[in-house]
Structure formats: structure tokens, C-alpha cells
Specification:
homodimer; Elongation Factor Tu (Ef-tu), domain 3; two-stranded antiparallel sheet; 31% strand
Chain lengths: 155, 155
């Protein structure tokens, strides 16, 4: 299939310099749009939304560690072996993160966020406002292992 | 900034052939993983989640229509002029859609979904399980114009 190419729209600034797991709420993060491509107009009205979905490239992923099949999440054999598309792990075929963050401030080309699990310097691919009608519809459920994995993810 | 390149992991099959707005719940959709790259193992355990987040390339976007600044959503002057990153419109710098869909069935390399707003043939970039801990945290709000825009989006 034909390769897809994208130009980053900006970059992440974060107090997290290395791609370690967990405790992301301890970090401060912002996004700066590329001034060569954008003016502050591109963010006009975004602060009228509570949250924004950030698409970012996980540029510190080691290509030799990418999983294309199934594995135990985080190598933990207490959890079942599951497919890479049943996990949100970074070592995936196309290492794009998508995270819904709370908007703190928008000033010029800089967007200050809460809850961004991206390391410093990550290229940003897209920003989309969080819209209630795009939330999962109907009953939601998830397996026990992922709830356990997420226990220390944020705090 | 350096271009980012991704190889699609599969393709969308949908009864929607053209990128028209609204009424997406009238369509049937599935995703087929690329058999040259993946085995059914890559989807192992995904059906233990109720929903999956689909990242897809909106390949029918006309590059000459891409908005990099601000505009009235859908050209409707009754709605305020807002920045492209305060909209989820397809005519955006990097035309990637992210939609949370209900999982109906997973058989071999084929995933049957409900609520996928991607046209037939769209390249799929990634699949991630919907995880409750990644939902927006804290109070959510959005402007009136987007709630109006979404009224006929699904049904």
C-alpha cells in the first residue's frame, strides 16, 4: 500500500524527556505550532472547548522493538497475550499517540495542556477539539488487565 | 520539520463511497488488515473491548481546499469563524480522521464496526482499543455551533 506522508504542524514541549511509563500527571506540557506554517488564527475558538485531542508522533520508538503480532502488555506474563491493535503500547507499526487533554491556555501559537503523555520534542500531527458526539456510543467495557495497567498511568 | 511517513495497516470497506456530510449511521463498515503485513494475532483480544479508535487517512480530500487558518464551519455564516484546529473538518493540514467505533465482530483479519465515518477505500493507519482512563478528565464543554453541526452527523 502507498506510503502516507505528513508534515508536522508543531512540536511538544514537556518536562518528560524520556519515554518512560506512568505518572504523566507529574509533567507540564505545551504545544507550539510551527510559525512557518501557521498564524494564531489556526487556533481561534479552541478555548471554547474544554479538551483537545492531540495526535503526535512517538519519535523515540526503537524500530527494532515494534510489535506486529501479539505480546504480553509490558512483558507482564500475569496479563494475557494480546494483539498490538488491542493495546495502546508505543511499539506499534505506526507510532502515533492520540490523547485527549484538558486545555489550560491558548496564547499566540502556544497551547498549554493538562494530561499530555508525549515526551519533549514529539512532532505534533494534528489537533482536534473533543466533541461529545464523538465519545463512544452505547455501553463501554474493557478487560481487567488494561484497568490494572492504567492504575499508575496518570498519577 | 521532517516529513513523517507511515505504511497503512489496512483499508476501510464501507457502503459510503463519497465523502458527503452526515447520516453516517446509515452505513455499514468494516476494516480489513493488510494480509501481507499481519496475521489475525494482531487483533487478538480486541473483542474484549467494547470500542476501538480508528485512525484513517481521508484520501478523498482535495489538497486545494485545505484550510490552514480560520473559516466558518461548513461555510455556514450563522456559525463563528474558527481555526482549523478548533474543527474536525476533513479539509485540514494532515487529513487524518480519528473515530471511536463500536466493535461488532472480529473474524480473521476483518473487523466489523458500527459508527465509522470513513469512506470506502480509506487507508487505515492505526487501531487502538478505547480505554476508559483515556476519556476526557474533568468537566467537558463545547460551543453551541458544534452541537448544532453534529445534529444530523450520525442519524
Amino acid at each position: 500500500m502507498a506510503t502516507l506522508s505528513y508534515t508536522p504542524i508543531g512540536r511538544v514541549h514537556s518536562t518528560r524527556k524520556n519515554p518512560t511509563d506512568d505518572f504523566w500527571d507529574h509533567e507540564n506540557a505545551s504545544i507550539e505550532l510551527d510559525p512557518a506554517q501557521f498564524s494564531p488564527e489556526a487556533l481561534l475558538g479552541l478555548v471554547d472547548f474544554s479538551h483537545v485531542e492531540v495526535l503526535f508522533h512517538m519519535n523515540q520508538v526503537d524500530p527494532s522493538k515494534v510489535e506486529k503480532s501479539a505480546r504480553h502488555p509490558r512483558g507482564n506474563i500475569d496479563w494475557p497475550k494480546v494483539g498490538i491493535f488491542a493495546q495502546r503500547a508505543k511499539n506499534r507499526p505506526n507510532p502515533i499517540g492520540t490523547t485527549v487533554c484538558r486545555i489550560i491556555e491558548c496564547a499566540g501559537l502556544t497551547l498549554t495542556l493538562e494530561g499530555l503523555d508525549a515526551v519533549d520534542g514529539s512532532p505534533v500531527i494534528d489537533l482536534k477539539p473533543w466533541v461529545a458526539e464523538f465519545a463512544p456510543r452505547g455501553k463501554t467495557f474493557q478487560p481487567k488487565w488494561i484497568s490494572e495497567l492504567m492504575e499508575k498511568y496518570w498519577k
